[in-house]
Amino acid sequence: MTPKKQYYENTAKTIIANLEKRQMKGWYCQDSAAAVKKVLELVPEQSSVTWGGTMTMEECGLMDALKKGSYTLIDRLAAKTPEEKKALFAKAVCADYFFMSANAITLNGELINVDGAGNRVACLCSGPDNVIVLAGMNKVVTTLEEGHNRARNTAAPINTLRLNKKTPCSVTGKCADCQSPDCICSQIVVTRRSHIPGRIKVILIGEELGY
Ligand code: SF4
Question: Considering only CA atoms, which residue is closest to atom 3 of ligand 1?
Answer without folding.
Answer: 183
